[in-house]
Design goal:
mainly alpha, 14 helices, elongated
């Protein structure tokens, strides 16, 4: 029998649990930190320097490997839009702001303009490549077959272009331009949208007429943006090799 002075086991409160040591909240990593490179990249990797460049790589690939890496992107710390614009050849181009709610629709407008401009430029370059007067820079107009060709010829080469247009170069261009405008939003439906648009032009009875119809619906500012990107020297010299 318990004594009157003793407490019941059910009335006794458990001893207080030891308090855990709370960690200090992590401060967000800022670009201004002096040791940002060592936080993101171990010294062993950092001291190795840039990756070796193969001698077989052309000037375009060398430019991309040397000047547009994730290391440079993080180390720059912003403004990232300016970095994308310079890499896309849009350093002095007057761009316009796009609201977050309009990014998806703006990117779709950009895709449509990109397809129309690319097909038109490929058509022009292929026309010149199949003209002896243009290939050999002859001044006599009679030597230029491109001046006397009918619509059937352009319909045939547009069909050929649409059947051989590569996916990755088009998406790469949309990556640079979309990031430069801050409206990049690629999904599987986006790729299918490009494919359906290209095939709708290529499978038409008159691809040249359908392309012109789509081109008239494109907004001028997006057309000018794509033309500015394609006016870079390495794009002009190797347009057919890049996209076809």
């Amino acid at each position: 029998m318990e004594s009157s002075g003793s407490e019941s086991l059910f009335s006794m409160s458990p001893p207080p649990a030891p308090r855990r040591r709370q960690r200090e909240p992590r401060r967000p990593l800022l670009a201004e930190d002096s040791n940002i490179a060592r936080r993101l990249f171990p010294p062993a990797i950092e001291e190795q320097g840039p990756a070796p460049i193969s001698e077989s790589m052309d000037a375009v690939q060398q430019h991309e490997q040397m000047n547009f890496t994730f290391h440079n992107l993080v180390m720059m710390g912003g403004p990232y839009l300016q970095l994308w614009r310079e890499e896309a050849g849009l350093g002095g181009f007057d761009l316009w702001p796009i609201l977050p709610s309009e990014r998806r629709s703006a990117f779709k407008k950009l895709l449509k303009a990109a397809v129309c401009v690319i097909l038109g430029r490929c058509e022009l370059h292929m026309d010149m490549s199949r003209c002896d007067g243009c290939r050999y820079d002859q001044g006599n107009q009679e030597a230029h077959d491109c001046l006397s060709r009918g619509s059937d010829f352009y319909d045939r080469i547009l069909t050929e272009i649409c059947q051989n247009l590569k996916i990755l170069p088009v998406l790469k261009m949309c990556l640079f331009l979309g990031c430069a405008l801050d409206c990049f939003a690629v999904t599987q439906n986006t790729v299918l949208y490009i494919g359906k648009l290209v095939m709708k032009i290529g499978n038409a009875e008159s691809p040249a007429a359908v392309l012109e119809k789509f081109r008239q619906k494109c907004l001028p500012e997006y057309v000018a943006l794509v033309k500015k990107y394609l006016s870079q020297p390495h794009m002009v010299e190797n347009l057919l090799e890049i996209f076809l």
